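=== RUN LOG ===
request id: a7f3
mode: sequence -> structure
chains: 1
length: 222
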Amino acid sequence: MTESYKTVLEAGRDEFTVSHSRFIGWSKPVDTEEAALRFIEEIRKTHWDAAHNVWAYVLGSARERFSDDGEPQGTAGIPVLEVIRKEGLRDVAVVVTRYFGGIKLGAGGLVRAYTQGAKIALEAGKIIQRLPYLSRYVHTEYSLTGKFQREFAQRGYILKDTTYLEQVTFTVLIPPAEEENLQKLVAELTAGQGRLQPGPMEYLDFWQGEIIMKPSNHQRSE
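=== RESULT ===
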């Protein structure tokens, strides 16, 4: 997978009450079906006394499952799954736990309640955008350190690491569309003497437009 996608950052939990029924929404990032089912089972074991533990999950761009867990067909699992779909999320599991309050909600009321439960669960888990970045190693002379650092900052490149040996080596993360521009930058600043080596692709997490899990930018010498 090399395209951007949305998921949740962390496990989330929130709740509300409607007509004396208590609804608890849970969400968690998962990357395998085993992880999704394990999360669902943990909630079911913890809330074994609840009337229902409705769930849905989406893995990758196609794999999805849901369960009404005893609620009328189409009133619970599908609404939860639809919230995940509409948000465009993948690699996420959601459980909505219901403690029955003695008042029936009707089909429309159940759909609204489980939809709300899924929404608050995902909001609590922080919906993030995961963007692919290319890792590149730039080898250059010490005298050009400041120039490269300024250029990286101005272009929005992420300086992940700097190593000082016989030459300076920058580990820089760039959007895939910037690869040619980085090549030109290295050639221009070093008069063709600098070296650029490829590294692995990494995903960076963005929440509300800001990087929330930036790679550490430390310097070391060996």
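=== NOTES ===
Helices lie at 33-46, 77-87, 106-125, 145-155, 179-190.
The first helix runs from residue 33 to 46.
=== END ===
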